[in-house]
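Progress against Task 2.4 (sequence-to-structure conversion) is shown through the following example record, which the project officer requested during the mid-term review.
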Amino acid sequence: MEFLTTTAQAFAHGGFWMWPILAIQLVSFAIMAERAYALFVRRKTNQTQFALGFEESIRRGEMDAVITKATSMQATNPVARAIAAGAMAAKNLGGKEEVQGKMDEVLLEENAHLDHRTGFLQMLGNVATLTGLLGTITGMIKSFAAVAFANPAEKASLLSAGISEAMNATAYGLIAAIPALVAYAILQNRANRLAEDLNQGGLKVYNWLSYAYDPITSYQIKTKNKSERNTEVNA
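Structure tokens generated for the chain above:
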């Protein structure tokens, strides 16, 4: 209780700029909570391991099975969207370039989701520090202006009140900035790890589609052409 009372008194003595810092702190807490849930709860670093489950089907040329499985699991596994897009391109005989293009399109979109709003934490941390510094400057200006026209008996109390306001603004600005900057570093590191895992899983699938599915596709085309020629001859 004493801590809360002291904190409330310090906030009240910090001047106008304590309120903008409070707003910055609340916004940064909201971003931290949302990003922590998105990156640590909803996303897991298992996309490469998940992609390994498609190797056998791709090597056998079972594109329909690959597309069906990937589509059913893309809600919880981002790499599944890239697998489905690549398998669809391979099934339509699009070639390596089209397979890569379709998969890259999905991977770029998924990687962009990892960085949503995280960069604001760095900005908010810097703004909180600068706002606290601004509160310090305005507090010092107010105290010296008051002292210049005050009675000698009141100068000490007015000066101490202005310095108190300045120091409270500085302290609160740092209190708001430090968690935001620490959270930014942690969340950015997590996003990088998730992106690496996602891209590695997508690359594995692309390699299987490019180097394992191509020979099967060529064989299927030759077989289909041969069957069509035999049908024409028999007709």
